[in-house]
Design brief:
B: Rossmann fold; 2 domains; globular; C: mainly alpha; two-stranded antiparallel sheet; 15 helices; 78% helix
Chain lengths: 292, 232, 348
């Protein structure tokens, strides 16, 4: 029984991280109809930067804030310079572009920091909570992870629904030409969308780094689970991303606990394929299938 | 107010707008008529900047807006209600309306003015725009344009898909807006008869060029012209 | 002479045999003169070619981008390593088994892939690239876990002499495999099936209206490319590197393959040749570059990857229609030139 509770709780924690990555992917997809395959590599770079800040100043908070800021800048720069030319073109171009960016970022990280993974500090204690006489695997740090991700998701939700900026961003995503006719600077909104998405990714990177260790390829797995979570929830739906992330986190946690952690990537693949075959729009699909 | 001079624009090798000139003074309605594919929609898209002009000029209240970006043209006071109305279905009625005034900030029209004009929209203000009927969507798109307090209004086929009674209503509304707000209205229509019934002048396009430009009542009266170009 | 050329032009089979024979002869002569090191590189290029050729046919002709072919190479590699190392099979049979096994694995993957488009297909195959090699950790006793499976090198047959260079033999076997892939794919490309593939890529709706079974065509293309990747992987493990370890088949390999295919030109067998050459030679050049500039090992190890990434980005930004349009434009200009040659008197 304890095992089930442990797996459930750790599923929620890892699911929160998947949700953050999924949120990043969904924000970018909604704005520019592109799957950002470089997301994992981008958040890897911001996490390395956070690591450098934390080692030199000793402040976790400063490291986290700098990572978020770098995420904002990186997302904006990537959209403006690399992605803008391929928006609206054949999807194949965007796929190859983001994969090329992923490749360059991983290589550059290897050049600067080497290919051996290093440790990354956690914000809070990594000792599990004690309930009665049993010690759970769920830690205060896990609580921090879940609360932060949920908090950020809610904040983004409020921003989108209640502010003019959010309204402009949604309009730019849903109907860019009409939005232009209403005086919305659509290009700018797309840049902001990418910046926010990259910041969400940066958050995920810092949160998950203590458990996956920090290396150029450490975040490949959460890119994939983030993608699966986004598809599961529906690529058009930010709330879907959060729900999808949590559900996927739980599912993969059970697979890891009962079958073995090496099967987790394959399990993610199977879930992805099943969702794409059965309900390609995801759980929260709102758009109609544009099939001839 | 709105001056178009020798305007040209192309889709690739095809000349969609071929040297069109016309003027829309304040408080008047100019109807742009012609068969499908004559270049009416392309003309509006070129004026509002969605389609880049390859030659010619567009002036709004004396300011040259010919090759300006869309967002700038809109800020200068040009509103374009596109073909199909351009209502954003994922947003609510109120959100659609608010969107129309964001660029104007504090100078935008309060939504209450629009709700007075279109009480039906007020009833449905929190509903997603996808639930609106064709006529309601037309009201929404015009109301949304008005929130931005435009000086000139481009309307692309507002009567499309609407029942005749509604068409008459919309046309009457457009006339009133031109008269009371002093808007310069450029009205593209397939339904030539109803457009000419409220217009001051009529311009007929064919293959991107102006073939007839005349006072509206004369166009309606001249049987030969009517039969040749307007189908009635 | 013109009669012979005309004959070749009309009969794909003859043409492919001629090409394969000519290339084979050239490469055989080459192996006689190359050093051991260079022969090994040739062998490496050969197994890359096998995988790249299959992938380029898939991508260029049926419009499917797969990021999972590194994992499929792993399937072929582990199959060959298991059969040779544990069961003592001869190399040729083990390689045949690699082809079959990977082809079979390619069937469910291909069926799923045929229903997916663009980024969904890329994401799913990326998940495959990470998921499949992880299985080595799940079954460590069978698959050797982190360290993988080692294989004894293939022994040249006795009639070649006891001092026959091992590297040369490896090159012969690998090149033979590559030639086989070239032969099969060339025939398919220039046949009716090739045309169906192109039709499906260019306009799915039109193709389906013509009655082409799209899913089946695309799934078949996938299985075919998987089989080629399987042969490539088998050659890698059994012949050239004598090792099947999951670390070699991660995302990096799939990205190398993608780069090779995109740079060489999607859908072009000739491009697969250049891509293979690039994959083999670039690490050497960057190593030389790094040592002449005294760059650290970190930099020199990651330099090829950085260059591939920059080239991919550059290609997309500078030649946006090129990724798919380039093939069509190239073919159009070739046929236009041919038409012009036939009617020299035409004005335009």
């Amino acid at each position: 029984m304890t095992k089930f509770i442990d797996l459930t709780l750790s599923g929620i924690s890892s699911g929160a991280v998947d949700a953050a990555v999924a949120l990043a992917l969904v924000l970018i997809w909604r704005a520019t109809r592109i799957v950002n395959f470089a997301q994992g590599a981008m958040l890897m770079i911001t996490t390395y930067i956070a690591s450098a800040i934390i080692s030199s100043t000793g402040s976790y908070v400063l490291g986290l804030l700098v990572a978020l800021a770098c995420g904002l800048v990186m997302g904006a720069v990537v959209e403006r310079i690399l992605v803008r030319p391929v928006e609206g073109a054949s999807p194949l171009n965007a796929v190859i572009l983001t994969l090329g960016l992923y490749t360059v970022l991983v290589a550059v990280a290897g050049m600067i920091w080497g290919n051996s993974p290093r440790s990354f500090p956690a914000a809070f204690s990594l000792r599990g909570y004690k309930v009665g006489s049993t010690r759970l695997l769920f830690t205060p740090n896990d609580t921090f992870i879940v609360l932060t991700v949920v908090g950020v998701a809610l904040l983004l939700g409020v921003m989108f629904r209640a502010t003019s900026l959010g309204l402009r961003m949604r309009a730019s995503a849903f109907a860019p030409e009409v939005a232009r006719l209403l005086g919305v600077r659509v290009g700018r909104m797309l840049t902001v969308g990418w910046a926010l998405a990259a910041a969400a990714g940066a958050l995920a990177g810092v949160l998950v780094a203590p458990s996956v260790f920090l290396g150029p390829n450490s975040f490949d797995a959460i890119l994939i689970s983030g993608f699966v979570a986004a598809v599961l929830g529906g690529l058009d739906s930010p709330p879907g991303a959060v729900v999808g992330g949590l559900l996927l986190g739980l599912a993969l946690s059970y697979v890891s606990g009962y079958e073995g952690s090496a099967l987790v990537p394959m399990a993610a693949l199977v879930i992805l394929v099943v969702v794409l075959m059965v309900r390609p729009g995801g759980l929260f699909s709102t758009q109609q299938e544009r099939r001839v | 107010m709105l001056e178009v001079e020798g305007l040209c624009a192309s889709y690739g090798p095809v000349r969609a707008v071929d040297g069109v000139s016309l003027t829309v003074p304040e408080g008047t309605v100019v109807a742009v008529l012609g068969a499908n594919g004559a270049g009416k929609t392309s003309l509006l898209r070129t004026i509002s900047g969605l389609l880049p002009a390859t030659a010619g000029h567009v002036r709004l209240a004396g300011q040259d807006i010919t090759r300006a970006p869309v967002e700038t043209i809109v800020r200068q006071g040009l509103a374009h209600v596109p073909e199909g109305r351009g209502v954003i279905p994922e947003l609510t009625v109120e959100e659609n309306l608010r969107l129309g005034g964001l660029f104007r900030g504090r100078d935008s029209a309060p939504l209450s003015e629009v709700y007075e004009l279109f009480p039906r929209l007020e009833e449905r203000r929190r509903q997603p725009a996808s639930r609106l009927s064709g006529g309601e969507r037309q009201m929404l798109s015009i109301g949304r344009a008005l929130v931005g307090r435009p000086r000139a209004l481009l309307l692309d086929e507002p009567s499309l898909g609407l029942a005749p009674a509604l068409v008459a209503q919309i046309m009457g509304l457009v006339r009133r807006l031109a008269d009371t707000l002093g808007l310069a209205v450029l009205l593209v229509e397939q339904n030539a008869r109803s457009a000419l019934s409220i217009a001051n002048r009529g311009v007929v396009l064919n293959l991107g060029r102006v073939v007839v430009e005349e006072d509206a009542h004369l166009l309606t009266a001249e049987e030969e012209l009517r039969h040749a170009y307007l189908g009635f | 002479m013109t009669a012979a050329v005309g004959l070749l032009r009309r009969h794909t089979l003859l043409r492919s045999l001629t090409i394969v024979a000519a290339v084979g002869l050239l490469l055989w002569l080459l192996t006689l003169g190359l050093s051991d090191y260079r022969n090994e590189q040739l062998a490496r290029g050969a197994y890359y070619f096998a995988a790249l050729a299959g992938l380029t046919v898939l991508a260029g002709l049926s419009g499917q981008i797969s990021l999972g072919h590194g994992a499929l190479m792993a399937v072929g590699a582990y199959t060959a390593a298991l059969l040779i190392g544990r069961e003592g099979w001869p190399v040729s049979l083990a390689l045949a088994a690699s082809v079959v096994t990977t082809g079979v694995v390619g069937i469910p993957v291909g069926i799923a892939a045929s229903r997916l488009r663009g980024p969904y297909l890329a994401g799913a195959t990326l998940a495959l690239a990470v998921g499949l090699p992880s299985l080595a950790d799940q079954y460590p006793s069978l698959l050797g876990g982190e360290n993988g499976l080692t294989v004894n090198p293939p022994i040249p047959p006795s009639w070649l002499g006891s001092s026959f260079s091992l590297s040369r033999w490896e090159a012969w076997v690998a090149v033979l495999g590559a030639l086989l892939v070239l032969f099969v794919l060339y025939n398919i490309l220039h046949s009716g099936s090739g045309r169906s593939l192109r039709a499906v890529r260019d306009d799915e709706i039109a193709a389906s209206l013509c009655g082409l079974r799209i899913s089946r065509t695309q799934a078949t293309a996938f299985v075919l490319s998987a089989a080629c990747a399987g042969l490539g992987g088998g050659l890698l493990a059994a012949v050239v590197e004598q090792l099947a370890a999951k670390g070699a088949f991660g995302i990096q390999l799939s990205l190398y393959l993608l780069a090779g295919v995109v740079i060489g030109g999607l859908g072009s067998l000739g491009g697969a040749f250049w891509g293979a050459a690039l994959l083999v030679l670039l690490p050497n050049w960057t190593n030389d570059l790094a040592s002449s500039f005294s760059l650290s090992t970190n930099v020199s190890n990651n330099l090829p990857l950085a260059i591939y990434g920059l080239i991919l980005i550059g290609l997309v930004l500078l030649w946006p229609s090129g990724i798919q349009g380039g093939i069509r434009a190239g073919r159009r200009s070739v046929s236009a030139r041919r038409a012009h040659r036939r009617t020299p008197s035409s004005a335009a």
